[in-house]
Specification:
single chain; alpha+beta; Resuscitation-promoting factor rpfb fold; 3 domains; three-stranded mixed β-sheet
Length: about 220
């Protein structure tokens, strides 16, 4: 008769089996997923590193056939003497060369002179009281694109001169006027005195005589 031998696991194997049996289903699932991921990653790395040829032994890289490319010199065509090439300027350079900017200038406006009478000055005399200045109008021409600046047509008003003109008397006329005034004052004083004496002689008081003469005697 043949003897039947029973295989008994070693102590380490029994310990490992106990630990595996003590794991929860969730932990076992995580271990299986990790093993599958590592196995797939290793297979993908080996596949990319060694592209095997079906006819060659396993693990030998496939040979790639490289076909040399022979380049032939290109023929250059010389331009004929009858044809000439002229560079065409771009649209931006042509616009820049033909652009005409706008121009502005000031059109002057002359100021006037204003006179005012001054009777304290002799006739014919004048005195400049304020010095005026000219004004101007801004006139602009449009550029080549038709643009005109907003300052076109702006107006600065002029400021007129102010001159005082004498309307009084000259020296000779003033002397004559002073003499006439002195004679008139003398006549008025004499008439007033005569009136006062006449009323006093009639028995009027000083106050009554002064009031009556002031109202009746004209200057």
């Amino acid at each position: 008769m043949k003897k039947i031998y029973k295989l008994r696991p070693t102590k380490k194997i029994r310990t490992l089996l106990k630990r595996l049996l003590s794991l929860t289903p969730k932990t076992i699932t995580i271990i299986i997923i990790a093993l599958v991921f590592c196995t797939g990653a290793s297979a993908l790395y080996i596949h990319n590193s060694y592209r095997t040829d079906p006819k060659s032994p396993i693990g030998t890289p496939a040979k790639t056939n490289i076909t040399p490319v022979i380049s032939t010199p290109q023929q250059t065509i010389q331009p004929s003497s009858s044809t000439s090439t002229t560079p065409t300027p771009s649209s931006s350079s042509s616009k820049a060369s033909s652009y005409r900017p706008f121009l502005c200038n000031n059109v002057p406006i002359a100021h006037q002179t204003e006179y005012r009478d001054n009777d304290s000055m002799a006739a014919g005399e004048t005195k400049l009281v304020y010095q005026g200045k000219d004004g101007y109008v801004i006139s602009c021409t449009a550029d080549s694109n038709g643009y005109t600046p907003p300052t076109n047509g702006m107006r600065v008003e002029p400021v007129n001169d102010t001159v005082e003109k004498g309307t009084g008397l000259d020296e000779q006329q003033q002397q004559q006027a002073d003499a006439e005034k002195a004679a008139r004052d003398q006549r008025y004083t004499l008439n007033l005195a005569q009136c006062f004496q006449s009323l006093k002689a009639r028995g009027a008081s000083d106050e009554q005589a002064t009031s009556a003469c002031s109202s009746t005697v004209k200057y």
